Amino acid sequence: MKHSDSFYADFMLGHAQRLRGLPEEAPSSLWRRVRVSTVDSLLACEDDAFFIPELNQAQSQGALRILNTSNLIDHWKVRRRFRRTLPRPTVALLSIKDALVPRAQAFRTLLGRTAMVQEVHDRHDRIVSESLQYHRGVVLRRAEAKKIRDGSASIAGTWIYMGLLHRHFGHFLVDSLPRLWPALLPTLKGRVGFLVDEGVHVGQDQTLFGQDSRDHFALTLLERLGLGRERFLALEAHSRIEKLLVPVPVWRREHTHYYSTPMANDLWNSLRSERQNCPNRVYFTRRHFAASGGGRPLSNEGAVEKLFESRGFTVIAPEEMALTEQLDLLADSKVIAGTLGSNMFNAVFMHQGKSFVLAPGSHLTVAPVNLGRSAGIDTSLYVEPSQKHVTFNSKEPWQVDLAKLEAALDQANLQ
Predict the structure, then answer these.
(1) What's this model's pTM, rounded to 2 decimal places?
(2) What percent of the chain has pLDDT over 70?
(3) 201-221 pLDDT tens trace
(4) Which candidate, 188, 199, 258, 200, places its Cα nearest to that of 225?
């Protein structure tokens, strides 16, 4: 029986946990803290504590429609893959006194992939499970944390833990932004800075907050949250923080599983542009990106573009537009379409509407689809089952059957 790479990655990370005597799924650590009722109480508390904000309880999950699967069994497998969820935690902000934050560490899995892990330890050197990006990651044992603590740098004051700062568009949206919801709390605005680790890309020296990165998409999104670069402190060494506020992510994914919380909608809404009441239908092409060396090239994307244009879509290459222009366009979009990739994360910036995603049968990444769905966007997923050779970084082209695609578009009813 042949399993996917993600199965082996999941198995090996979990096996590494067992060998080190650590739990595969880290339990909540809230029971160790004192609950307080306001942010001011959290900031003033002398002990480890946590605050649970009032949540917007309204959250609508967008529908998922699977199109063009070859048989009922494949249809069931695809649907099941996109419905795997993680237990939804209590959204809380934890206050940790004398917290230890080791620099993010790179390690190689047996598959040859490079992964980054980081975590927070409390003053007793216990892991704060809410700080973990992947619960099945390799983390420091208590004895190892004690050794690091003795030689760590000291950072005074109170800081909010953002964790790893990803510079890939999709990873930034699903792995970095979900910890920034404290920026929405009026009682915290302007009072506390954010602590980040930029060590995600091994060997990349330029920092996101350097002068020559002023047009980076991440800075644009951070500014929409009212966060200028002066609000961030980048870790340069293992550090002990006088007081660290650790937010529970409002959206999290782990391999093919994910959870979403109502506060995630508040976060996405704060990033959207205002609507101008001019409905748009947009097809996001990856043709130019693939021609410049990007992965997963669609060999007949030119013909696919013409098909969508005949149905009233405007073809856009997102890498040729400033992010603010894309956000304005998406605010008015009623339907967006494109091949599976970072371009389809854009669904989260729509106020309402539908998305249509084209994907090869061997590369069904969950996050670009489920992020939009968690924001209430109905999604049609067109699967090309004959294309079984495509992987994440594949340079070998794949293609879409135009006749079947046209039939699927009629079935999707993208009005």
Answers:
(1) 0.86
(2) 83
(3) 444 455 676 545 556 888 899
(4) 188
8 A C-beta contact, residue 364 and residue 81: yes
pLDDT digits (tens, 9 = 90+) for 320-333: 888 999 999 999 99
